[in-house]
Amino acid sequence: MAMQMAALAQGFNGIWRSGALTESPVVRAGFECKRTG
Question: Which GO molecular-function terms appear in the entry (predicted)?
Fold first, then answer.
C-alpha cells in the first residue's frame, strides 16, 4: 500500500487487486511468487 501511495504522489495512478487475479499462475510467475503456508 505504501508503494501505491508513493506512486500516486509522483503523479502515477493505480488500483489494488486481490483474490483470483493474484492467484493466476502467469501473474505469480511474473513476480516470482512462491507459495507459503
Answer: oxidoreductase activity
